[in-house]
Amino acid sequence: MLSLTMGGGEEIYVKGGWNGDLMGILRPIHRGIFEFNGYDVLEPFTVFGPARMSDEERKAELARFDTRLKGIFNESKIDVGEY
């Protein structure tokens, strides 16, 4: 599982957005590194714009990450797709 923070908002990491589809950006890592080496790929953990968040919002994201890690062994792998 990749854990990522992005400086911009979620709306710029979609198909047609300023930076493009995030899953498309991550495909070379998911497919070319993780799957190639025999790892199952999990949905990435993402936080958009943490520098613009309040302390309470950042704490909520840390709690969300904590919850995600506690349940990580119960997650199903994602379909990365082909190039």
From TrEMBL:
Signal peptide location: none
Keyword Oxidoreductase belongs to the record: yes
Protein name: NAD(P)H oxidoreductase YRKL
UniProt entry keywords in alphabetical sequence: Oxidoreductase
Organism: Vibrio ishigakensis
One of the record's GO molecular function terms: NAD(P)H dehydrogenase (quinone) activity
Entry's Gene Ontology cellular component terms: cytosol
Gene3D superfamilies: 3.40.50.360
Protein family: Belongs to the NAD(P)H dehydrogenase (quinone) family.
Residues annotated as domain Flavodoxin-like fold: 1-68
Record has Glycosyltransferase as a keyword: no
